[in-house]
Amino acid sequence: MASATRRVGAETSATRALIIDATAQLIREQGYAAISTRRVAARAGLKPSLVHYYFPTTDDLLVEVSRHGADQSDRMIEEALASDDPLRALWDFFMDTSRTAMALEFMAMANHREAVRRHMAEHSEAMRQRQVEILRHILGKRIERLEGFDPAGLSLVLAGIGRAIVMEEGLGVKTGHAEARQIVETWLEKLAPDQS
Amino acid sequence: MASATRRVGAETSATRALIIDATAQLIREQGYAAISTRRVAARAGLKPSLVHYYFPTTDDLLVEVSRHGADQSDRMIEEALASDDPLRALWDFFMDTSRTAMALEFMAMANHREAVRRHMAEHSEAMRQRQVEILRHILGKRIERLEGFDPAGLSLVLAGIGRAIVMEEGLGVKTGHAEARQIVETWLEKLAPDQS
Amino acid sequence: MASATRRVGAETSATRALIIDATAQLIREQGYAAISTRRVAARAGLKPSLVHYYFPTTDDLLVEVSRHGADQSDRMIEEALASDDPLRALWDFFMDTSRTAMALEFMAMANHREAVRRHMAEHSEAMRQRQVEILRHILGKRIERLEGFDPAGLSLVLAGIGRAIVMEEGLGVKTGHAEARQIVETWLEKLAPDQS
Amino acid sequence: MASATRRVGAETSATRALIIDATAQLIREQGYAAISTRRVAARAGLKPSLVHYYFPTTDDLLVEVSRHGADQSDRMIEEALASDDPLRALWDFFMDTSRTAMALEFMAMANHREAVRRHMAEHSEAMRQRQVEILRHILGKRIERLEGFDPAGLSLVLAGIGRAIVMEEGLGVKTGHAEARQIVETWLEKLAPDQS
DNA sequence: AATGAATGAGGATTCATTCAT
DNA sequence: GATGAATGAATCCTCATTCAT
């Protein structure tokens, strides 16, 4: 990958990590549009040029932050899929406000940054497929309890509803949230592992 | 409202409309981050200062564009809710790529522009409530055919799934889309008006 | 021409002229590599952003300065070609240190700036052809007094020798200059209008 | 000389040669304005700091590259002057596009870099004098066949015409080139060694 | 002999906004 | 209504150079 060769400074550099952290913080707090060399540097307590020393272009930085977020998501999903009630754990994952808000920022960013879009697309696709693979295995015949559902569709549906709720909460909208959660709840119960 | 007092130029000016249109076009094509007085002016074939003449601040302009988009959505929703198969019409509305993409841009914008956020929140809430009101009336007892669903939840669920599909399509992700549409299809059929 | 549409500010603006002058001065004194928005602005006593207001890109500015220099050259050449001894006047033109030095800067600049290269090429070609046209008319049969010469070749030869002398003088080289001038002198005398 | 004391690393280091080569290449391809520690390092496949290790300042590097080019020119000239038809060989040397283009870059550079200017001046002067010395010896009385010419003047005239042609070719100008070459051709023939 | 980290200055542009006309 | 001029702050990015290792 191109950015790999351009990477400056040890993978493990503390400064590098500091910059990535500061950027993620800023995105979380103020949205992706707030990202600029100066602001990132200020937040990290560094000089702007040092940011460019580690990340020659802003794209390089943002893709790296995206990558970190993706790694974290991957870990969370694996944990969820390995839990007792994988489906409910997955739903909790989709409802994780801070993570979803961050993901939405990267979605928006992807519209304007081809490099980010590429990475997000790859990761989203991989994530969905990983979920399908495990869900198919875990749910087995249970999925038939939800008429019309299949694992791939279920993954997208849960993700979409989760994102909508988080997005609207950020906006300050509330109507329908409890009801939507209730709908999902009904599904989760139907699909819950047999307790026998 | 502050922007009301600041508004310059007749509400009905053709130039005003031109500016709003140009802005909407730009947002649709290049995302909200591409908005700047200069670019809007260039697209509209006007001088930058004229944009400021009509919209003293960029916020004023964006809120106005948001308002226009909202009005259009309102009209589309009323049409949908008045159609033969309101639920399917509503789903088509949620799946309208261009409108949804635009709505997502405004969501992202809302993070950084308090004025836009306020307007988006008000409108989203109103839109949802209007849907609930009509759906409750239209669906009547039919909603019970979908176990666990209620009109408010249904509205959010459809919106969320629609947005997710459009968002992911923009990204280039495909897995699960057909399956998710199939899930919704099952619901729509169950809730379709009795043909008797 | 593209830059025409991009031109901001009245053609006749005093500020515009000020910027062009300042740029020409800087090139003359410090070479083209010394040109930067900041330096031009400082020399003109203006703010850097004002330079960009009049000349959106540095290329726009440099092409404009090149154009001004070309206009001046044109006037000088027309004057020379209209004089009593056009050939000697042309030679004096080629030996004009300040103008030639400036032309050399633009030649160097042309290597790195396509827009400048284009303009320089057009103008040089036109200038040469104008000289050929007039020389052919003026010299008539006299050119035969210099065996092997023809007007087009003569134009290039004089230009080349002139440039070389000016260039080397700038460098601090002296050997051969007087002798080269003597060679040209011999030609000029042979070609001088008959005194009869 | 300052640069002598500042020079670090063995005169004969392969890395040193690599850097000088890379710099020369870059100048040839992109002009001297494209030279920067980073770009040179990238081209040479080295780390930027290593360039500074060998050449503490950019001036040091450029003077060295200039010196190498000069050495090469010297060798080419000695070869030319030792050939059967030294004058024609000299003319071929002046018409060598790549070398002349490079020389012009150094001329332009000399305007802004005193160290380079000094070196260029010394070398040009020496080169001219060496040519005069040999031409005087070689041409002997033959020079009288060209009325008004003398070896020093001839050297400058050939150099000037050659440079002008190469310079204009780079620009894309063509008028008069063939004719100027013809003029020189006439001289060369007149001065060719007697075949008797 | 080599290199990673750091920095301050400067590069071209773009921006929203103000103001006088 | 409309516009040209002006500006200060911000954008990303590149640079030569220094220094400690």
UniProtKB/TrEMBL annotation, chains A, B, C, D:
Domain HTH tetR-type: 13-73
DNA-binding region: 36-55
Bilayer-crossing regions: none
Xref: InterPro entries: Homeodomain-like_sf (IPR009057), HTH-type_TetR-like_transc_reg (IPR050109), HTH_TetR (IPR001647)
Keywords per UniProt: DNA-binding, Transcription, Transcription regulation
Coiled coil location: none
GO molecular function: DNA-binding transcription factor activity; transcription cis-regulatory region binding
PROSITE patterns to which the protein is assigned, alphabetical: HTH_TETR_2
Pfam families, A to Z: TetR_N
Protein's recorded name: TetR family transcriptional regulator
Source lineage: Bacteria, Pseudomonadati, Pseudomonadota, Alphaproteobacteria, Sphingomonadales
